[in-house]
Amino acid sequence: MTAMKQYKAVSADEAVQVVRSGDHVHISSVATAPQVLIEALCARGRRGELHDVYIHHLHTEGAAPYADASFDGVFQHDAFFVGSNVRKAVGEGYADYIPVFLSETSKLYRGGYVPCNVALIQVSTPDAEGNVSLGSSVDATLAAIEHADHVVAVVNPQMPFTYGDSVIPLSAIDIFVEDDRPLHSVKPAEPTPQEQAIGQHCAALIEDGSCLQMGIGSIPNAVLACLGDHKNLGVQTEMFSDGLLPLVEKGVINGACKHLDRGRIVSTFVMGTQRVYDFLDHNEQVLMKDVAYTNDPFIIAQQPRMVSINSGLQIDLTGQLCADSIGTRIYSGVGGQIDFVYGASRSEGGKTIIAMPSMTLKGVSKIVPTLNEGAGVVTTRAHIHWFVTEYGAVNLYGKPLQERARLIISVAHPSVREELSRAAHERYGKHYHD
Is 403 one of the catalytic residues? Predict the structure, then answer.
């Protein structure tokens, strides 16, 4: 019998019968969310077969119907990060959020802080040794598999076979379902002129031989687009997307100077177009690791010249950065920002960069005298080092409050600098000077 025949598949409807009322269910994250199982689980909910089922995951792509108000009392969404597909439900109170560093999401399961009765996951087809791969997303799913009473896996030939912590034996899975729908894809956003300027400012801070962490979106893409003349860059990140590929193909990213995992790109999830999923498939240059490894600040700190590039929603004149909420309304989550901010700051020759446009798309300044009431401080004023907008880069580390205010105002949009200076004068008194 070949490895491909070492499991017996059942229907999705039959597979989700293992979920009982009161269970805690982990759903694999980002592009690997098993939609066929989610649909079957919600069908059971509509038929009145379940109540008080807790749903946990990092952010997922695609539909998240279990968070809909119509399932109030059936499913309770308590996720580790809030994506756009559940943001409205969280804001209305039909879904909820567990504040947690991304590096500690695995610990929630391994330490018993969050139970896991059923893990709903998606995997590649088996290899000749009878192993499957978690593909484009390991994150906290490996910990969920280790501690779940029942593991239900969708075997999908569209899932890339990746190496590292993503490889698990068929014996780790209890119930198999087959599906062949493509992974959810996200086309990279085109950077605006402001974001292109931010990319140039960030790239100027990155030395040859640096090890990079950056997320998804137009600002990371803009930074990567400016690194074509750099040499011997490495990657240890929580995620990457298509923007990394040109630098890999050009040999700019080769991991030659990394202390750990030399020559390898290390990540815990990947999201992008089919091109990046094809890049992952059977690519030994990429190691997909448990989030407890990729985001551990003490592992990150061992990479020399570690550079973290993250963003935020709002920053005050002392350097407090809000990155998870708009006022009291949760927008995303703590995520891995502090994991990498702290890790990079402890790295030999490392740099931690917060980069964001000075204004929102609606023309509201992201630089404010004080954060909005209820805003969550993700990166504290003690953690922040480099702060970058389209108007330049300033280093706040080791600077007293009044000098910080001057530096932050210097990279604010010109239309608000006078107003911010007045606020600084009111805060610090006659000794403050522009």
Answer: no
